[in-house]
Specification:
The structure is a homodimer of 464-residue chains.
Chain A: H1 3-13, E1 18-19, H2 22-27, E2 41-43, H3 48-61, E3 65-68, E4 85-88, E5 95-99, E6 104-107, H4 113-120, E7 125-126, H5 139-145, H6 152-155, E8 162-168, E9 174-178, H7 190-194, E10 203-210, E11 212-213, E12 217-225, H8 228-240, E13 247-251, H9 253-262, E14 272-280, H10 283-299, E15 304-307, H11 311-329, E16 334-337, H12 347-360, E17 365-370, E18 375-382, H13 387-406, H14 425-428, H15 431-444, H16 460-463
Parallel strand pairs in A: 2-4, 3-4
Antiparallel strand pairs in A: 1-2, 5-6, 6-10, 7-11, 8-9, 8-10, 12-14, 12-15, 13-14, 13-17, 16-18, 17-18
């Protein structure tokens, strides 16, 4: 990157929001995936106008721009695929407005997910999507990746709650889409096209979110099974029974073993676990649904069924699920965490298929996930300095993607394509859809400056 | 349209699915709006392959194609803006699959909305969007216009339930988007871009819909108010109270007068009416929410509050709301029915503003609508043979659109832009958004053959 260009960037955001210091560049080299690449400069714009001027400059000089929130992504979406500028939106972190009678919250992209929840709680409202990284991730990142989480089965994903956006386009033009209305069919749905586009079509600078009244009653139940297939079939039958639990998580035998051997969390014995939560405004509503769930659990011969009587007991049942990811991750130097998703009834096939595949590649792994919406997280552990292990991880992941797509599933339910799944887009999408996506990318970003190298779009031109 | 081209069209669909008969052309000249224009030929393709071949031909010969379902639209979206071919999808009407454990229904576009509901009921499931024309409208039309309805506040709109599509693009290529998964962030969201695009980007030939378990308990309450402003403020406060009724309808004084004078429906006296419905799996849940609603109704000094004790009583409370549109429509030779939508707290401002505007234009009107999601239906009656009345209707509509946009609202909450609102797109959308929409249209349909003259895209080239 030329000195003159760096100077122009610095002039736009001011020296306090600009850095070439190694410590900053290195922290912008990574996200929560295994991908990494160092940018030339880091900037922290503080308002839409600065973002607009930065993109206008980048567009004119074919300068690569990698937008970034908290960097909690697991697919490399926030890692520069080649050098250039990282646009860190964390300093645009105002909750602009909370309008309870409109069911609307207006936020800047850098607002931390949990800060919005805290601000909404006194009104008895909440923002339903529930990403596991909620304590640190930003709402801009949630929108850019259409973040999911634990409560997708009942409450859907981020996309279902985005009513409108302010977006800076690749050439610096500022565009508003949608509105603070609960519904609109006025023109093309630019809002939802931008959601989940991983910063490749524009930079989100303001978000209008739909919010919901908080449910007051919650029931939590944990059940152990003799095998993963039985637990998987049980999930399908819970859905068929006519209730939609707010949480319906599954943990496989490996996850349970890891927790037994490497944590102090007390767990009943079993080879698979289901954690279910139901909710409502009233105890009766939460109970009715949990009774249905419990009946299905019993019909599928759950060995042990623990229902929480208090909030504290519920917290204890949640402990195993919450710890699963991090306890497993600590066993080996590195891991890949996938988020393959299938139609709900295919969860048993996917569970069994994943186990077979990863065992065949002789790698340690665990599987858990949001079975209620068909979304599983196989986490495969490996040593990144062992070339053979790295090769086996890649092969196992590819086999899992192939299986998922054969089952009518999708490569990614909530993490995004990023760099991690870019090579596999053709497994899921037909040639026509890929062609349309590429055309959309060219239309929105003709100089290919916005987050190149992601979602299967080539980085080559910009990295030259 | 040249004879050779007509022959080629007939060869694709067969003579049994092709017509130039006046009776067919005339029935394809209209929808439920005041717009009309006669096509050259009518076709009823029976499968995706025929649609693909028809578009391939139309693309090559720059032949205008107007897709159509049941023609219940109120914005002229299904009326040919210029001649050419009407593509009636009513014969592609198979319910392809119902997969309860996946929460998925797969349908062809010509399936009548109510037929899907009937097919789902034995399983205890339903498709939540609830358009008023459900008895006759088709799901393809619902998706193409992102249909709303009575239950938007709690259940959202059609877009929230479309998981995937099969679409034939303008040049005849067949594309699949989305999948039968509850969630996906794989590539751009082509599915939701197509939803609500009114047949201007592609022809929908198969739809994957998310379905929900049926709520079992319902409470219905009717309340009368001294004035529309009080009723409007009450709506805001119901939302603020932390419950989301499944129905929250409002009827203005004119609507009530029309019902009193021109129907036999027994109605309590009052100058505004609210009809609320709450639901849940349990009676307790429906009661809890209705108790909240009732408290707010009382706080706002509702004159009379009637709660249904039985399903039959509930049916009686619904009678006035159901009849409102048709009783009013019968008073004059013609009417326009708008569907302006504002942030929920602006409903009182919009109600009062609409009344003032239409009175100033000296036209008879009623206002009712889905206040719980900010969506009102001003219905203005006029005589289409009276040029001055027509002029006043147009002026009043434009003034209502201006007011709506000033209040942060949208031109159309559920009917679509079509021809009716095409001239007003600039009131709502900024120049950049309009520019992006036009670019998308060019990208998907370079020869501008798909439903030209709708959504603000020009018909001129094709009508030459």
């Amino acid at each position: 990157m030329e000195e003159r260009l760096k100077q122009a960037v610095r002039d736009i955001v001011g020296p306090e929001n600009y850095s070439e210091a190694l410590i900053d560049l290195i922290s912008h080299t990574y996200d929560a995936s295994a991908h990494h690449h160092r940018p030339d400069v880091s900037v922290w714009p503080v308002n839409t106008k600065q973002v607009s001027r930065l993109l206008n400059l980048a567009h004119a000089h074919h300068l690569t721009v990698t937008p970034r929130g908290a960097g909690t992504g697991l697919a490399g979406s926030a890692v520069p695929a080649c050098s250039g500028m990282v646009l860190d939106l964390c300093r645009m972190n105002r909750i602009v407005d909370i309008r309870i009678p409109d069911r609307v919250a207006v936020v800047e992209p850098g607002v931390v997910y949990q800060d919005l929840q805290k601000a909404l709680r006194p009104y008895g409202f909440f923002f339903p999507p529930d990403p596991a990284s909620g304590k640190v991730c930003t709402l801009g990142g949630n929108v850019a990746t259409n973040a999911g989480g634990l409560k997708g089965a009942k409450y859907g994903v981020t996309r279902d709650y985005v009513l409108g956006l302010e977006v800076v386009l690749a050439d610096g033009r500022i565009m508003r889409s949608g509105s603070g209305c609960m519904k609109s069919v006025s023109g093309y749905d630019l809002t939802h096209l931008l959601v989940g586009s991983e910063g490749t079509l524009g930079i989100i600078t303001e978000i209008l979110l739909k919010i919901d009244p908080l449910p007051r009653a919650v029931r939590t139940t944990l059940a152990m099974f003799e095998g993963i297939a039985a637990a998987g079939r049980c999930v399908s039958d819970i859905i068929r029974s006519g209730v939609v639990p707010s949480v319906l998580e599954i943990l496989d035998e490996n996850t349970l073993k890891v927790l037994q051997n490497h944590s102090k969390i007390p767990l009943p014995r079993g080879k698979a676990m289901i954690l279910a939560e139901t909710d409502g405004y009233t105890e009766a509503e939460a109970d009715f649904q949990m009774d249905r769930v419990t009946k299905v659990l019993k019909r599928h011969r759950a060995k042990e069924i623990l229902q929480a009587g208090t909030a504290q007991e519920s917290e204890q049942l949640w402990e195993a699920r919450r710890a699963a990811g991090s306890v497993a991750a600590n066993l080996r130097p590195a891991n890949v965490s996938e988020d393959v998703t299938v139609p709900i009834s295919k969860v048993p096939d996917l569970l069994i298929g994943i186990s077979t595949i990863v065992r065949d590649h002789q790698l340690p792994f665990v599987v858990f996930g949001h079975a209620g919406d068909g979304n599983l997280h196989p986490k495969i552990m490996y040593d990144p300095t062992d070339a053979d292990e790295v090769r086996r991880v890649t092969r196992a992941s590819e086999a899992i993607f192939r299986l998922t797509c054969r089952l009518g599933g999708t490569l990614t339910g909530e993490h995004g394509i990023g760099m991690a799944k870019a090579p596999y887009m053709g497994l899921e999408h037909d040639a026509v859809a890929l062609d349309v996506m590429a055309a959309l990318k060219r239309l929105f970003d003709p100089h290919h400056i916005l987050n190149p190298g992601k979602m299967g779009f080539p980085p080559e031109r910009e990295c030259a």
